[in-house]
Amino acid sequence: MSKFNDPAFLRQTQYRDASNLSARIRVHKQFSANPYGLYRWIFDHFPRQSGLRILEIGCGPGLLWVENRDRLADDWRITLSDFSPGMVQQAMANLDPKPRQMRFCILDAQRIPFADASFDALIANFMLYHVPDRAAAIRELARVLRPGGRLFAATIGKNHLLEMREMLSQIDPQVEFGRAAQWFGLENGADQLRPYFTDIVVHCYDDALVVTEVEPLVEYILSSQHATAAAEHPDRLRREIRRRIERDRAFYIQKDVGMFEAVRRRIEPEVDLRRARRLRKKTEPHPTSDDEFDAAKDAGRP
Asked: What is the span of the domain harbouring residue 57?
């Protein structure tokens, strides 16, 4: 199993807290060519009707909501979740004082502890490629989403950060950096969603990195789960980045980012959904309120 979808590694090392992800987010904030931020763009596609019940899977540090706090409807009910307790803690801190529409929980996307048709909209951004059993996770997304409800799932394509990957391959020809799209990307995600979702469209976000400083990009790369070889040769990494910046006045790195929007089918494969319900019943529910989260954290429960 690749580190990219190894739950133990992801929970205990890569996403134990928000530090690795934050190093990468800083580069995107500082050097992105598109002045209209990704999280504002994602939010633009959400429905606006009143009374929405929303679940975000893989909320990370909660930046989608931090950057759109001014756009939340008063009567929405929003559940932010992640499989990493550290990420949930960071989201709670970033959204303090907590909007009254929100609650937080820890959960596994492969076994979601909510009843059938609990939500009107479901968000799963930049995370499905990390899930070991994506078919099970997608069944669960469909199960907890009401028929006709909408899924929003941002991901990357095969050319995402291509120039950075080519540079790293000179240091380590076996590097897996930037290959998340092979598991769930813009090219293959629709086929994985199609058994449970219809009216699948891809919205593309036009952007690139124009990097003019060496150290932020070094930190970005070293924060990755596939940075072993680069970490062993940091001086060579710095030289390669500096050479490109000096040659072209900036290191241009393309982004290949988009978001699937899909509608939950009204007639679903009943056998698979019954199987998903049986799996859910065998799983101990995770905490679903702030108080329960604190109790679980104190008890050391994941």
From this structure: 3-160+177-207+256-297
